[in-house]
Design goal:
With 94 residues, the chain is α+β, with helices and mostly antiparallel strands. 38% of the residues lie in helices and 24% in strands. It has a two-stranded antiparallel sheet. It has a two-stranded antiparallel sheet with strand order 2-3. The longest helix has 25 residues, at 6-30. It is elongated.
Length: 94
């Protein structure tokens, strides 16, 4: 790869990764009212750089991960409410 195309590579990876982030946002919006759905977030990071023709050339960005955003307090409440109650089973003999 020549250094003349490094700007183009940076632009292409930036557009590709922002498209992925928009897809994640659209996924969040479409599942807004879905019970138990957890919001997601695309994490972008700097792509690896290369040493080309006596220069370090940055190669744009990359999607590092897509992670779920959870609130542990609310998650605990939700899980306790979803667990079947075993209060009626105690003290009974089979």
């Amino acid at each position: 790869m020549s250094t003349g195309f490094s700007g183009l590579t940076t632009a292409v990876t930036g557009m590709h990764n922002n498209q992925k982030a928009l897809e994640v946002t659209g996924h969040n919006i479409s599942n807004l009212n879905t019970k138990g759905y957890t919001r997601q977030q695309a994490i972008l990071a700097t792509a690896n750089s290369r040493y080309i023709v006596n220069n370090w050339v940055e190669l744009g960005s990359k999607v590092q991960e897509i992670r779920q955003i959870r609130n542990s307090f609310l998650d605990g409440i939700y899980r306790r409410e979803q667990m079947p109650s075993d209060t009626g089973k105690r003290g009974t003999t089979a």
